[in-house]
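hey can u run this one w/ zinc ion bound, need the structure tokens asap thx
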Amino acid sequence: MARVLKARYFPRCDILNAKIGNNPSYIWRSLVKPKDEIVDGFRWRVGDGESIKVWDDWWIPNTRKLLPVQQDNEIRDNLRVSSLIDRDNGWWDIPKLRALFFANDQTEIMKIPLRNPPTNDIVVWSEADNGIYSVKTAYRSLWQNEHPSVDEDNSESQRLKSYWRKIWRLPVQPKVKIFLWRISRDILPVGTNVESRIEEAPSDCPFCGLPETQLHCLRDCDWTRRLWQPCSDNGIFKQGEGFSGRDWFLNSFESHSNENLQRFCAILWFIWKERCNHMFNNKKLEAEEIIPKALDWLSDYLQAQGTVSANMNHPSNPQGWRPPPSGSFKMNSDAGVLRLNGIGLGCVLRDWNENFLGAVAGKESGTCRPVEAEARALVAGLREANRRGWSALIVESDCMKLIQMLDKGEEDRTELEIWCKEIRELASINEAFSGKKVEWAFVPRKSNAVAHCLAHLDGSWDQICIWTDSPPYSIRSLLEAEKAQFV
Ligand SMILES: [Zn+2]
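ok here u go:
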């Protein structure tokens, strides 16, 4: 049936570009209507780039912005993504990217993995994590488009339910949870909300005198804008017009990884605290002080709760890192969202005597799916292992999803599949010169502390850095502490 329709109505183009013809049959018309709505959910996964139009198709993942912005004014119709790929080295043609795109788009494009020899371009369903189209996910996205917020019983309440679960699981004080809950119900006692309940209450912002909505209070006041400035690349200021503070919060809530979410919520809480402090006690912190204070407060709190995840020493932790069996090597790998912007990658290799052999760390701006970042950390580590002939590897990651992908080879149409292919290929090269299989294992984060620390170094470099003789200073005490467990 699909083939018949294709032959008749869009013989020369793919379904994404099909339009209703002059004499459409009833069935095609009724198919096209929902198609127009769900087409937003499809994007391309770049293979050889021959099928993808640079300025017309959605092909840059990890962004809701469908198309790149054209940097020069010259019109380049019909430019295909294939012409951005350097055939000889099988990678992006960097000078061309520089000439055509703005920096943000360049960064995102260079994160798209390419295979050599190239694969075909394929269409990926962006509404499902694994990129595979299903009626269920399509229905959900259609439903959400048609019932943006009225549908309390279904998608919207489902959405809220998933926030509750996330909010209640956040390692923050109950009063902060209640504060977060209030934002998501749009009942935070900001000026405009108070005014609607209490007559003659002032609705002005205590900082600038404009009407104080949730969004104004938490993001748009001059004072809060200034304090968010260092995070502006993280999309803090996106989704501006027409959005309420609640929408902004809920959207941000969905897009942050857990760790980032803790920070985001801590900052919001501090903004609110300072706003009240200013209103009732007439005290005021400088905007620039808020983020550092909020992050210090968060790390103190986590430490007190014993849920510390970062580079704290656990010299006597019985479930910490374990050395590999004699004659083999262990590589720990991790990725993380950095303090203010970007993602970090880290890998560390040690032998069975707990000796340090090498570390790899890197930093990139922009965002990507956490599991993809984890896969890329592993690629960086394995490339280095192969270059230096480190073999008989046991590879540990604290990303369950990635290990499952590598173990079971679950179906996936997104870029993750390409990264996993790359990982398997690097592993098989490694196996070829050692004759020993590379093993994968999931470990809890506390057994992955050194890699975690490397992934969060947040140094000033923006390329992959490699240490082989001696470890970078920031992981030394942690390495010593883990070693001390076995002496
Ligand atoms: Zn204000």
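Residues 205, 207-208, 210, 216, 221 surround zinc ion (CB under 6 Å). anyway lmk if its weird
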